[in-house]
Amino acid sequence: MKTISLEQEINPWEAQSARFKLAAQKLNLDEGLWKVLQYPNRELIVHIPVSMDNGKLEVFTGFRVQHSIARGPAKGGIRYSPDVTLDEVRALASWMTWKCAVVNIPFGGAKGGVICDPHKMSMGELERMTRRYTAELIEFIGPEKDVPAPDINTNEQVMAWMMDTYSMHMRQTVTAVVTGKPINIGGSRGRREATGRGIMIVCDEAVKKLGMRPESTRVIIQGFGNVGSNAAQLMMRAGYKVIGIIEVDGAIYNRNGINIDSLIKYRERVRGVVGFPEAEAADPAELLLTECEILIPAATENQITSQNVDRIKCRILAEGANGPTTATADEVLADKRVFIIPDILCNAGGVTTSYFEWVQDRQGYFWKESVVNDQLEDIMVSAFNDVVRFAETHQVNNRIAAYMLAIDRVAYTIKQRGIYA
Question: Strand locations in 68-136, DSSP E?
Fold first, then answer.
């Protein structure tokens, strides 16, 4: 195994490239297609002037990367964070291509971001920045071109501003330009819970496959935002024992299981999980390494690395976040025979229900929540079975199987379309 520095190991673009390379080699991918799929189609950098509340003018840097549009419009979230980088957005855009292909929905991959600290900005400043950023992207986004969605530090409100700005420029209401919107302006029922629900669906399948039962399955979840809290709540209701929750400012643990409904109410009141009376305080780094059957990293990238992977004690690793495990850590997890549900499968419930939202917006006909959830389950279960079958057939781990399946589908489409002509 080639030795690499920690900096290289945690670079998301390098991590994505390492997995792509290995999967492409296993597929004997044609050299020309390799070049087509290795790099994004288009990368946009914008500098956005925003008038701040104190009267000063600030300039923010924003990105939008479209990795592939071979299978349909590009699709991917927008994140607001002080540490957004072009490499990170590139990696996330390519992950979106593979994610959409794994669950077999007709989108390619994109991602966007703005370097800012939204926690230090007022609603007015965020709105002005969002509208200006959207205006800069007008020619590059649209229902047939590229469909943004929420991501870290963005939400339904940000999507409403984006949709309104785009609609103003088009002189008509275009609901299908973004997904993850409020329900009353074209959002889908079930979208908010979709990523967490998708995680539960694939965990259910993994538990069945390994001959386990939810009642005797202990779960630790890192991250209690939209994804982690919905996964925790749904899994608790399905009979799983959620014993630990890890957040940025601290962690909580209860070996008998945490009542997630009570925790959500507590968090709404105090804006955090620390001090929750029905569980004891724990060290976040240590809780990640505590023995459990299912570990769900649902926060940010690079949580399981060469530095801590040898102490991971779970049977199933269900990746709720994008890129929580480095390529170097993968090799150790394979030796430990940990059953990995890779991010491009595990957290694809969000983009799948975003696809349903886009379909409903374009039809002008909206589904009941039960229909959304049934359709989501069908797609997630099929994708899980496809990945596991691919892994067993090609004798590779689930992650490389998911990449191989995705790359194979995108490459096949490119060949069918005759891009070589």
Answer: 74-81, 108-115
| Cα-based torsion angle of the residue sequence 174, 175, 180, 185 in order, rounded to the nearest 10 degrees | 130
CA nearest to 385, candidates 104, 144, 5, 161: 104
∠ CA 355-357-363, nearest 5°, is 105
- What are the C-alpha distances in Å from 220 to residues 103, 306, 345? 26, 20, 19
pLDDT of residue 295: 96
What is the torsional sign of CA 8, 10, 14, 15? positive
Other beta carbons within 10 angstroms of residue 393's beta carbon come to 10
What is the C-alpha end-to-end distance of the chain, expressed in Å? 39
Q: Which helix (H) or strand (E) holds 61?
A: strand 57-66
Could you identify the residue written with the tokens 């939008």?
64
pLDDT exceeds 90 at position 3: no
Hunting for tokens 């040898």 — which residue is that?
Answer: 310
């530090």: which residue's tokens?
153
The predicted model gives 23-31 an average pLDDT of: 89
d(CA 136, CA 148): 14
The strand order across the sheet containing 218-222 reads 280-282, 250-253, 241-247, 218-222, 294-297, 316-318, 339-341
Determine how many CB atoms are found less than 10 A away from the CB of residue 268.
Answer: 8
* Residue 208 falls in the annotated catalytic set: no
Average pLDDT over residues 394-417: 93
If phi > 0 it is left, if psi is from -120 to 50 it is alpha, else beta; for residue 250 that is left
Residue 421 has a pLDDT of: 44
* Residue 411, pLDDT above cutoff 90: yes
Decide if 84 contacts 46 (C-beta within 8 A): no
The residues facing 246 across adjacent strands are 222, 251
Per-residue pLDDT at 2: 56
- The pLDDT tens digits of the residues spanning 157-172 come to 999 999 999 999 999 9
Tell me which DSSP letter residue 188 carries. Answer: P
Spatial contact of 398 and 387, defined as CB atoms under 8 Å apart: yes
Among candidate residues 111, 181, 208, 368, the one labeled active-site is 111
What residue type is assigned to position 100 of the chain? C
Q: What is the DSSP letter of 148?
A: E
**Per-residue model confidence as pLDDT tens digits over 278-287:** 999 999 999 9
Between CA 295 and CA 308 the distance in angstroms is: 14
In angstroms, the CA 70 to CA 378 distance is 24
Q: Does residue 137 or residue 152 have the better pLDDT?
A: 137
419 falls in which pLDDT band (50, 70, 90)? low
* DSSP letter assigned to residue 307: T
